[in-house]
Design goal:
Blueprint lengths: L3 E8 L3 H12 L4 E4 L7 H5 L6 E4 L7 E2 L7 H6 L2 H10 L4 E3 L4 E4 L4 H13 L3 E3 L4 E7 L2 E6 L2 E10 L14 H8 L4 E7 L3 E2 L2 H7 L6 E8 L2 E9 L3 E3 L1 H7 L8 E4 L6 H11 L5 H8 L2 H11 L10 H12 L1 E3 L3 E2 L7 E6 L10 E2 L2 E6 L7 E2 L4 H14 L3
Parallel strand pairs: 1-2, 1-10, 2-7, 10-21
Antiparallel strand pairs: 3-6, 4-22, 5-6, 8-9, 9-10, 11-19, 12-15, 12-18, 13-14, 13-16, 14-15, 16-17, 20-21
Helix pairs in contact: 1-5, 1-13, 9-12, 10-11
The protein binds dihydroflavine-adenine dinucleotide.
Length: about 400
């Protein structure tokens, strides 16, 4: 069969790959995006609870984790959240700001995917699904790919295969394999933005609270997040836990301030004076969902009215509440993680074009590289920004 020739081939029809395809297509490049899945952009569809938190207006490089923290700055500066918002608005997609800066579709994530596919169509970029790559070879003239839909050749090859999170959605380590094939180093990967699992005893104690959420301030490894925590039947989730999971390592403890908006010790002293018959459970119930307050109280065995508490008892109770220490058993891993930390070492890539420094026609973009955002639209912003940076060069 005669090889089908393109200027640019992109492996991965996800957020970064589609953005790169449209950008390169508008430059007049003949672009093909291939994906082994039966649908493009599956993670876009499932993101943000079906409403896609497509960017964050407050996104800065400080919202990203990387072994090479300066790498992401250039691309993020050149393609900002406002650029993506302008695109969304040009397509008439209604959106809303949920938490500070976090922009979601009002209706459905489908609108973002349809927008990207429309952009690809307008730019003349072809998207071919159910196509798996068997081998890739590269020389000075470009790349040859043996695929399930025949032999493909191109001048520029863009790897946008994403990370390992949610294998049931088509995630594979293929991008890392390609990086290694071309002599690049891949930093160890681990699941990020992922719920914690608990040891059986604590899990059992918290089980009745499954579904209850409350605002906390969680601290681990000198990072902290003040956002809601959700107890699930498997462990701890909710934005605060997902955020801190990216900084947590096996064996670490989490320090949780259960009442971050209060001055617990002073409140308890004041309460003992003004209403000595009050209990800690009653105090907790003023600030936390009732079920949660009672369970937390029972967990720590606080009983009787505050008038029976010595100053040292109050200090101890306050410390327990503002530094509740929990050692998670682990995380739910890639099965439910929103992102993969680590990946292709960015020290080998150009921060301007996303291309390999000594192979300027091979690009790595999106989640496959060692750039991982906080929760809240930052990961898509990286996918868009790195997609545009590569699409302007490939
Ligand atoms: P992505 O994973 O999007 O795309 C990779 C593509 O490569 C896929 O289409 C895959 O099928 C294909 N592929 C993989 N292996 C291949 C192979 N061997 N051959 C061919 N194709 C292959 N972020 C955010 O900012 N806001 C949000 O609301 C959310 N919500 C969210 C929810 C959930 C449940 C998850 C799992 C993730 C999020 N995220 C998020 C994270 C976000 O989805 C993620 O950062 C981006 O999708 C990464 O974009 P990429 O294009 O790099 O990879």
């Amino acid at each position: 069969m005669i090889p089908q020739n393109y200027d640019v081939i992109i492996i991965g029809a996800g957020a970064a790959g589609l953005m790169c395809a449209a950008t390169a297509g508008y430059r007049g490049r003949r672009v093909l995006v291939i994906d082994h899945a039966n649908k493009p952009g599956k993670k876009i569809l499932m993101s943000g609870g079906g409403r896609c938190n497509f960017t964050n207006l407050n996104s800065t490089p400080a919202n990203f984790l990387s072994d090479n923290p300066h790498y992401c700055i250039s691309a993020l500066k050149r393609y900002t959240p406002q650029h993506f918002l302008d695109l969304v608005e040009r397509h008439g997609i209604e959106h809303e700001e949920k938490a500070a800066g976090q922009l979601f579709c009002k209706d459905s994530s489908k609108e973002i995917l349809n927008m990207l596919l429309t952009e690809c169509e307008w730019a003349g970029a072809e998207v071919r699904l159910k196509t798996s790559v068997k081998t890739i070879s590269g020389d000075d003239h470009g790349y040859q790919l043996q695929t399930s839909s025949g032999t493909l050749t191109c001048e520029s090859l863009v790897i946008a295969c994403g990370g390992l999170s949610i294998p049931t959605m088509g995630a594979t380590g293929f991008g890392y394999d390609i990086a290694r094939q071309f002599g690049l180093s891949v930093l160890p990967t681990r699941a990020g933005l992922v719920p914690f699992t608990l040891h059986p005893e604590l899990k059992e104690q918290l089980a009745p609270l499954s579904g209850v959420s409350c605002p906390v301030d969680v601290n681990c490894n000198n990072e902290h997040f003040r956002e809601p925590m959700l107890v699930t039947h498997r462990g701890l989730s909710g934005p605060s836990m997902l955020q801190i999971s990216s900084f947590w390592r096996p064996g670490d403890s989490l320090n949780i301030n259960m009442l971050p908006a209060t001055t617990i010790e002073k409140d308890l002293h004041d309460l003992r004076k003004s209403r000595p018959q009050s209990t800690i459970a009653q105090y907790l119930a003023q600030h936390l969902p009732k079920r949660f307050a009672q369970a937390l109280n029972d967990l720590h065995g606080w009983a009787g009215p505050l008038q029976g508490y010595k100053n040292s008892d109050i200090e101890q109770a306050a410390r327990t509440l503002d530094q509740w220490t929990i050692k998670p058993a682990g995380t739910e891993g890639y099965r439910t993680a929103e992102v993969t930390l680590g990946g292709v070492d960015t020290r080998q890539l150009s921060s301007k074009t996303m291309a390999v420094l000594d192979r300027p026609d091979l690009y790595f973009i999106g989640e496959v590289v060692d750039v991982t955002g906080h929760l809240g639209g930052h990961n898509f912003q990286w996918a868009w920004a790195s997609g545009v940076a590569s699409g302007n060069d490939a």
